[in-house]
Amino acid sequence: MIAPLANDLLLRALLREPTSRRPIWVMRQAGRYLPEYRATRARAGSFLKLCTTPELACEVTLQPIERYALDAAILFSDILTIPHAMNLGLKFETGEGPTFARPVRSAADIDRLSVPDPHRELRYVIDAVSMVRRELRGRLPLIGFAGSPWTVGTYMVEGGGSKTFGRIKRMMYEAPGELHRLLDILTRSTIAYLNAQIAAGAQAVMIFDTWGGILTPAQYEEFSLRYMARIVEALTREAQGRRVPNIVFTKGGGAWLSKIAAIGCDAAGVDWNTDLATARTAVADKIALQGNLDPAALFAPPEVLRAQVRRVLDSYGPGPGHVFNLGHGITPDVNPEQLNVLIEAVHAYPVG
Prior knowledge:
352 residues, alpha/beta, TIM Barrel, seven-stranded parallel β-sheet, globular
């Protein structure tokens, strides 16, 4: 028996329905800035073990919910679970980030890839979704997520993180057909993965296009946006009697918000480089917006942080369709008490 949802502010805001106040959640809200997360991570022994053990993933997903008056939980996982399921030898090295033992750099490498079964190779994620949903007991909605095909593809081709993205950009120019083949496999994988999360209990889903902003406008449309459009079109739109909203977030994509709004998503994430008033004009109130406080504002004195929160809220202006968030993830060196200041400032803001 699924408990009714006590707080559905996030879901209503994402669908541009009126809410009593602005809902708030924070990207990477379950993360290294929390001492309880660091303790669980130490107990797990590795980041990958933490991600692939449903009980531990559930535990850290719930940690910020127990500490703060947030309006949503987001599943603790990683955007590289799909290539991990493709047996590319994913490792997370301390201080270096993710690396792949078997990067994808040739037609033969792409030939060896197949769409993972989310109920088999990614069962640990689906089990974690079910577990978190049960433990929430209808208090708050649960957000599931995946990386965009382009963003996940950059890690697979580069073999890890990159500053220049030279390998995947070279593939884009020298062998665009092969890159499209890779992105197609990732798109089909992401559709199956997100729909499995929804079936397991995720009440909203988000696509993280972290590296879409490194592309030219034409490249963004061809190699990133078109594949996210395919995902959005294929997503399960209703589960357990209510709509399942989706959010598309391209970091560095403020200039393309009108194009993002046109793919049929319910909401767009906005980073701190774009004013929300500008973003709202760009999407013409056709979709909701999520964002967009500079994460570094959490280092400010409380009175300065409150002023920055008001600036973001004032920028969006009155009316429905706004979810307060950071413009990117919270950083590990933030004082956890600052998040309380942030949340209280959002809660205190009058509804216009």
